[in-house]
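Work Package 3 (structural annotation) set out to generate three-dimensional models for the target panel prioritized at the project kickoff. During this period the team completed the workflow that converts sequence records into discrete structure tokens, so that structures can be stored uniformly alongside our sequence database. As a representative example, we reproduce one entry of 177 residues exactly as it appears in the project archive.
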Amino acid sequence: MSDELLVDRDGPVLRVTFNRPEQRNALTWQMYTDLVAACEVADTDSDIRVMVLRGAGDVAFVAGTDIGQFAEFRTGEDGIAYEEKVGRVVGRLASVRVPTVAAVSGFCVGAGLGVAAVCDIRVATRSARFRSPTCQAAANPAPVRSTTLRSQRHCVTSALPEPSAWRPGRRATARQR
């Protein structure tokens, strides 16, 4: 795994840290690959009892996919393939056998919102900011559908916005209720 996605064990806890704080932990293609590998570790190591995901620093959990990754796109099919890839990675995280926890501090945007949404438990600091820019652009964000957000029942914070706050194009903060 790369130094952009840190994976370490602390007893029964598998800690996954998105480690690009200068870029608000925006995901690279390698980080997507490494996240799938971390899911494999969680599934194959019988000593692991929980997987905790967090962003390095206090500015962001994950601020989406690094837009520099899109420079190689040449056709609309490239965009479709990207959405499918993100959907597969997020789906893989959703299928991990142990409970997954998203420890959200700061920005949780785009693909980062997808990652947090599929975790079994989300813990948000008061600085957490949730947004899906693709909703604002009237697109259909494959990995983060509003039905996914509304179906979540395990939020460990009184600061996380109520489901009614999750509307396309609307910014939500951890202070909204």
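DSSP finds five helices and nine strands in the chain.
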